[in-house]
């Protein structure tokens, strides 16, 4: 058995896994034969430090990249499987977090009938988003699947990939989730909350095997696979991206630096790379870089499907 | 210097700290002389593992206890300082997370004027919450202060406590946040994202000094201070709660077990303890245990203010 097979054997599938698998398959079968389907993963995975989990290691990610991209893929006609960290940002609702939503509402007394309305100034903002959301709901083009732990994510990634394998090159995988490189094996984990009386604990982590290799080569061999690389050190970024392409044999790494990721990414292909950026005017106009990323990718994907690449 | 003083010296205050301090003081001064003010802390603190933070250790907490309690304290006439983990649950909006909000809306074309309304079936649900939210906003009885890291939390806890010291026994501190016992000192932290090439890292944690001691004895000596204890092991719970009361000299520990915390807590006083629970009927009626906790506490606090305890 390879490292990743041993790894999967050591993990328990998430609750309701068989039902989720059924939903994934049904979703892929239900789409029309021309529809492209993208799997978007989003948000960070957790590594529990105790079986009865009070503490965990987490990866910094609000799900901004993934949730915005999912919205633009839907806008570009894709069906979207959105595998996301529970409580991270979701397409559409991401625009109205926290108390923002309550601030948009007013109570209106019309003909002695009390109703609640969106205030005039907010209608223009909300209308296009609500419109697209309702259209997506009606057409059944969005399937949301939540995860919390690294283990949940691993099982769902494989199941979603396998359900996409039947549509060949029409499938894209857009792996934007911030997946931990490390984990604490089940048998190294204490059952109860770690106690501080005995002094601070030391957490020993193990490397997570790279599943991108079986994913690209076995699970979805004909799909257009895009991975992400986030670093804080510019010097490492392109080098590490190219190494990843060589090792895993997929199509594209979208590389970004933590501090500038909202304005600048680099598309790294095996033999070329170029920047996708927002200029000052676009930033002032609240253009999201994900709209440009998805635009570019949809074209690349079309070329790939028609055998031009 | 005590351990906690050294600890504070090693931490950088959060962005905009002086402005936040000013807001806290202004909030406390603005309330009427009869108003009781409660500081509710809510959600988990993070411990960054890198200066440019990609990874962090987190404490399991969605902010359910804190956000629900804040709402009931407002209902009981308190002014509330809500110090909460950014993106955790907030009072009022907690009822409408994720896509729930968009599902409640419909577009209506009235006299050629497009408006957006809450659908009929949701009006009854939303009305009392929106009503209370708007009343609280108008009366200026809620101040929300977000934190992310343990360090942010520590600074804000001290500032909020100090701003409450002027109102003496009318202040309550309801410390429901899940605060880490451990941290990684600034000088032990790598600058950039930890690289996996060299094998898995080992994270060495240090104990966080207990600030409940200076808080109770120096910062707000006349306030009614309530702390929480969460364990996964029942055998430890009451024993550890009583030890905490002895050590820190505050009024009450609310003790709970991870798995049953939504239905059962134990109020542990220095010389007595009793359970606050939901019965099956209350659970079926969606009664929240925080309503009972706050009811009980508000009475205890009144007795304390009038010198009866």
General description of the model:
The structure is a homodimer of 309-residue chains. With 309 residues, chain A is of the alpha/beta class. The first copy, chain A, has one domain (3-90, 140-308): Rossmann fold, CATH 3.40.50.10300. Helices cover 38% and strands 24% of the residues of chain A. Chain A has ten helices and 15 strands. Chain A has helices at residues 3-9, 17-30, 64-75, 100-103, 120-139, 150-164, 212-219, 234-248, 280-284, 289-305, and strands at residues 37-42, 46-48, 55-59, 79-85, 105-110, 113-118, 142-147, 171-175, 182-183, 202-204, 206-207, 224-231, 252-257, 264-268, 273-277. In chain A, the strands form four sheets. An eight-stranded mixed beta sheet of chain A has the order 7-4-1-8-12-13-14-15, with helices on both faces. In chain A, strands 2-3 form a two-stranded antiparallel ribbon. A two-stranded antiparallel sheet of chain A has the order 5-6. In chain A, a hairpin with a 6-residue loop joins strand 2 (46-48) and strand 3 (55-59). Chain A is globular and about 70 Å long. The interface between A and B is large, with 63 and 63 residues. Strand 3 of chain A pairs antiparallel with strand 3 (55-59) of chain B.
């Amino acid at each position: 058995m390879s490292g990743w097979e041993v790894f999967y054997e050591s993990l328990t599938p998430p609750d309701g896994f068989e039902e989720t698998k059924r939903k994934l398959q049904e979703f892929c079968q239900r789409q029309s034969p021309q529809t492209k389907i993208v799997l978007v993963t989003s948000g960070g995975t957790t590594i529990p430090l105790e079986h009865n989990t009070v503490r965990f290691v987490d990866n910094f990610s609000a799900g901004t990249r993934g949730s915005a991209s999912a919205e633009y893929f839907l806008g570009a006609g894709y069906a979207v499987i959105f595998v996301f960290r529970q409580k991270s940002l979701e397409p559409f609702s991401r625009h109205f977090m926290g108390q923002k939503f309550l601030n948009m509402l007013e109570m209106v007394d019309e003909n002695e009938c009390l109703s609640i309305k969106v205030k005039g100034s907010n209608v223009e903002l909300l209308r296009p988003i609500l419109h697209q959301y309702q259209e997506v709901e009606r057409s059944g083009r969005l399937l949301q699947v939540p995860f919390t732990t690294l283990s949940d994510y691993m099982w769902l990634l494989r199941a979603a990939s396998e359900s996409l394998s039947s549509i060949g090159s029409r499938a894209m995988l857009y792996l934007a989730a911030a997946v931990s490189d490390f984990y604490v094996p089940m048998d190294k984990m204490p059952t109860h909350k770690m106690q501080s009386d005995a002094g601070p604990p030391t957490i020993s982590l193990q490397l997570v095997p790279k599943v991108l290799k079986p994913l690209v080569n076995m699970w979805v061999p004909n799909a257009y696979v895009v991975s992400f690389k986030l670093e804080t050190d510019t010097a490492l970024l392109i080098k590490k991206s190219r190494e990843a392409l060589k090792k895993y044999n997929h199509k594209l790494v979208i590389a970004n630096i933590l501090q500038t990721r909202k304005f600048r990414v680099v598309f790294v292909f095996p033999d070329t790379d170029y920047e996708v950026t927002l200029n000052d005017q676009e930033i002032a106009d609240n253009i999201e870089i994900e709209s440009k990323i998805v635009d570019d990718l949809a074209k690349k994907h079309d070329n790939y499907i028609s055998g031009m690449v």
